[in-house]
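ok so for the tutorial part 2 we go from a plain amino acid sequence to predicted structure tokens. step 1 is just haveing the sequence, like this:
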Amino acid sequence: MFRYVDLNKKYWVWIVAVLTATVSTLFSVSIGFQGLESKLYDLRLGLSPQFREDPGIVLITLDNKTANELREFAPLSLGQHARVLEALYDYNPRGIGYLIPLTAVKTAQLEQWENPIIMSSFLTQIEKLKQSQIPLIFSTTFNEGSELVPPYPLSYLPHAISPLNLDQSFVSGEKEIKVNVLSFNEKNTLLPELIKLTGSSSTPIGYSFDSASKIQYQLFRYHGNVGQAYARYSMIDVIEKRIAPELLKNKLILVGSLSPDSPKDYSWIPAQNKLKRISQLEVHANMLDSLLNQDGVERMSTGINLIIALVVTTTTLLLVSLLTPGAAMISALAWNLVFFVFAWITFHYSTLGPTGVWVELSIPLMGSIMGCFVVFPFRWLREYRKRFQVEQKNKLLLQVEELKNNFMSLVTHDLKTPVAKIQGLAEVVLSKAHDRLLDRDKETIRSIISSSDELNHFISSILELHNIDSNRLAINFESKDINTIIEDCLEGFEAPARSRKIKIESHLDPLFPIKLDSGLITKVLNNLIDNAIKYSKDESTLTIKSSEVGDSVRIEIQDQGLGLTPIEIKSLFSRFYRAKNDTTHRVIGTGLGLYLVKYFVEQIHQGSVSVQSKPGVGSTFIISLPIEQKQTGFAPGLSIDLLENQGKQNRAGITDV
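step 2 — the prediction. this is what the tokens look like for a chain of 657 residues:
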């Protein structure tokens, strides 16, 4: 049953493309290709123009300089942290995010933690910040699914976890960080809680919620010159008041460890298609920046992503199915490039402002690739069946061509002899019985002779056309004076020209003999002169000129006949074409003469033929014959194949000479 289905119908192409696109897209969705999508996300994140960092965010670092001057190791003792809070109070910041866990401070120097004087001093500084309405929140660690709150007696202090890559199953890889966790188990993490305490909005645009793990998250961006984007000062400079007050006043301050000798203080981020190592403190600053300025990345909904993937995949498969292989490849690549550019633009800009939109690329890409594995065999089957049909038609055309050639050969050869006999017998009767025939009988016999002559001319034209199509035209090149051929032709037309009082003028320049087939050139000239006389007005003038122009011999045949329109000139040398006017209806012709003229001049003699004409004024046919023939493989006096490739095509029925 399938063999009777016409796969070349366009609706089959659409059906196969749409079904294949749907199945391959759904299959790609089921697989996920999360690793590929993560890499494509990194590529866009690294190549996107960087937003400018927020100057209202400042980093205070517990670095080697601080540890050396205080002669302590990180994370410092509780007393030193009390000094930090006292100094920050004097700078009057907008808010403080303390990313050094107090649990680590207690572990570092337990005796200071248990010293009531030092603990009281620490609590006093916190109370002063609270009374001055300077928000302060401490970072806590996250271990085995639960939060490790600050140790007693600081458990009541504002605190929250500040995780990096809490959700490893999402787009984040094992190292690079792209996700800002906003809440866990319905409790804010440190950065959104800090913003909330400062009075800003705590609900960012484009956040997502994972109901399975109860995690709310946002895709954030990196800002400025990554690694050196935000103003940072050493903790010892803050303690010793070495920083100008205006540099920290009304700023959001993040306090954290930054030691080149401590790998845990650093993380990896995607930047320009490669990983870059920056401090975790700066990662938190970028997260805070995206929250403050709402310039994160919003994930496109699953439904819209699926629709986009279907459109992209279907269009790609239709291009591959409908266009030629070269055009299909270029168009499919261009279409997917347009989609990639669209995805890149929406990643950086959206109607929501600076928030970008993450359109997934892996599903359309893999859907198109998998779909091509189905479409290519389908297209191959279509092309095979189409080629098979062409071959069948070609075989039929070859048979028709052979039948036509046999019929033409039979008709032309078998008709030529009877027609010649009829013409000869009529001439004998008219000659011998001239005195005994009535005038009307004589006119009848002359009509028989004239009609036989026209039929013989028609048969000769058909025979020559048949010889051309079957590559049996005999060519005999010899050196001849073209002027002699012109004069011989003109002698044969003196009687018909005289009967219509048409004056024939010839202006023939002396010429050297050139290589040509005198028989074919004679037919060319006879045809043009005969047409000029037939279509000229009575008592007009027919002018023939010959001259040497450059490396060619030029022949001009100028009449004062009806002339031709530009439309008629365009088709004049076509097979069986005749201009449509009152005169052509009265003049008998086959429409093959000028076709043979053009073929004999241009194909055989490598010359050219053209016409200049104006309706009501007349026409001038111009023939140019090269003085020296190029090597074409023609052998004088032999029957040869002309234009071998063209002849093969004619026999195959593919082209028409």
